[in-house]
Design a protein that fits this description.
The protein is an alpha+beta fold and 438 residues long. Among the domains are: 103 residues, RNA polymerase II/Efflux pump adaptor protein, barrel-sandwich hybrid domain (OB fold (Dihydrolipoamide Acetyltransferase, E2P), Beta Barrel), CATH 2.40.50.100; 199 residues, Chloramphenicol Acetyltransferase (2-Layer Sandwich), CATH 3.30.559.10. Helix 5 packs across helix 6 and helix 5 crosses helix 7. The longest helix has 17 residues. The radius of gyration is 24 Å and the shape is elongated. 41% of the residues are buried.
């Protein structure tokens, strides 16, 4: 009797409840070998290329491109071929629906833009290539790390994640000049093609537009959007619905608002770097805001590090990448890291660990419009600071009047975890640092 196995969708990133099918690399009736490319899935954080945990004939597929698969549900059914290599632990997984899904894939190793764990002669050795064109570099299988292979479709050789990015940016891969090994189209090739004839919609954030106080460029309707029709909400926006709904139901928000006078600044100062420095200074002096609150356990964890979650708006939805160790970075290092995070959001190439674990949040809505707001605190964080639109205001100085540049600030905090006094002191510390000359 043939041995049939169901492969259950593993958790592709820190408890995400589901993922969307981007592209199958197999069809029913195909014979697939252990660790060959099986499917590309899009989560709220990244495009993930999943290898096959079995060798054998594909009997059933759970859905097609665009379908949502719940974590732990069956993804593919395979009839094992005893003449082909099988993973040892595969013999004890996947007999039924639900449970035990994570073990069938093993540990995932996520590579940042332009880096992939490449196949080596010795199975225990890995090497980094300049740009192998993948979002997810490799997945652990048995005792070796095997790289994913670029797939040739329509005469174009590219990783599934590269194809997904090309679809998202509206790039025709057949018109892209490959620069990767063995004439493989890479992520960099796709991004260059998208930027040349018709720039892809860039992620907008305080990160770039406010480096020198410049305003964001005017935006235009995206050609890929459909109007006057109901469309399913997927990917990042699905996760945003879950996250915002949970935050609204749980947090007890209170907002304080005030202004910082930037008149003492030197020309050309990096506004974002100064704002993050002020956050770090205030967090160290008043740690109640730079904390995580666990409502179930009734515990509060004050952090010695300052990892700022930067709200970044993009065509796909809201991302919050984490800028680590802000209390130890100078202005140039902050700028370089912000640029990396901004570019990673634009290309969906940030690894999941860059999109979680922040200790305090910063929203930069003022780059678009608005002076004050009531930003949403996302648990377990206790606080989020909103930076409003810079403007000039007339202020009294030594019996006279002067026009000064003003930054409006809005601080929303979870009143279950912090007092109004702690929040007010934190905001005052931020304003004091922002109003210094250097």
């Amino acid at each position: 009797m043939s041995d049939k196995k169901l492969f259950l969708l593993p958790d592709l990133g820190e408890g995400l409840p589901d993922a969307e099918i981007v592209e199958w690399q197999v069809k029913v009736g195909d014979v697939i070998r252990l660790d060959e490319p099986l499917i590309s899935m899009e989560t709220a954080k990244a495009v993930v290329d999943v290898p096959s945990p079995y060798s054998g004939k594909v009997l059933k597929l759970a859905g097609g491109p665009g379908d949502i698969i719940v974590t732990g549900s069956w993804l593919v059914e395979v009839e094992l071929d005893p003449s082909l290599p099988q993973r040892a632990e595969a013999q004890d997984t996947g007999h039924h629906h639900g449970g035990g899904h994570a073990a069938s894939v093993g540990a995932m190793e996520v590579a940042t833009d332009g880096a992939e764990v490449a196949t080596s002669v010795a199975p225990t050795t890995t090497e980094k290539s300049a740009d192998a064109g993948t979002v997810v570099g490799a997945m652990q299988s048995s005792d070796t790390v095997r790289s994913e292979q670029a797939v040739a479709i329509g005469g174009v050789k590219a990783m599934p994640a590269v194809r997904a990015l090309a679809r998202k940016l509206g790039v025709d891969l057949s018109r892209v000049a490959p620069s990767g090994a063995d004439s493989t189209v890479t992520l960099a090739d796709v991004k260059q093609a998208a930027a040349s004839p018709r720039p892809a919609p860039a992620a907008q954030a305080f990160v770039g537009a406010r480096a020198s106080g410049a305003q964001a460029a005017p935006t235009h309707p995206r050609a890929d959007l459909k109007f006057d029709s109901d469309e399913p909400i997927r990917g990042v926006r699905r996760n945003m619905i879950r996250t915002m709904s949970a935050a609204h139901a749980e947090v007890v928000p209170t907002t304080l608002m005030d202004d910082a006078d930037l008149h003492a600044w030197s020309p050309g100062e990096d506004i974002m770097a100064r704002t993050i420095r002020a956050l770090a200074v205030a967090s160290q002096a008043e740690p109640a805001m730079n904390a995580w609150f666990n409502s179930r356990e009734g515990t509060l964890r004050r952090h010695s590090r300052v990892d700022v979650g930067i709200a970044v708006d993009s065509p796909d939805g809201l991302f919050v990448p984490a800028l680590r160790g802000c209390d130890r970075l100078d202005a140039a290092q902050v700028r370089a890291e912000l640029n990396r995070l901004r570019d990673g959001v634009k290309t969906r190439s940030l690894p999941p660990e860059d999109l979680s674990g922040y200790t305090i949040m910063l929203s930069n809505f003022g780059v678009f419009a608005g002076k004050y707001a009531t930003p949403i605190v996302v648990p377990p964080c206790v606080c989020i600071v909103g930076a409003g639109r810079l403007h000039h205001a007339v202020v009294p100085v030594l019996g006279g009047l002067e026009a000064h540049r003003i930054m409006p600030l809005s601080l929303t905090f979870d009143h279950r975890a912090a007092t109004g006094g702690e929040a007010a002191r934190f905001l005052k510390l931020m304003i004091d640092d922002l109003q210094r000359a250097r």
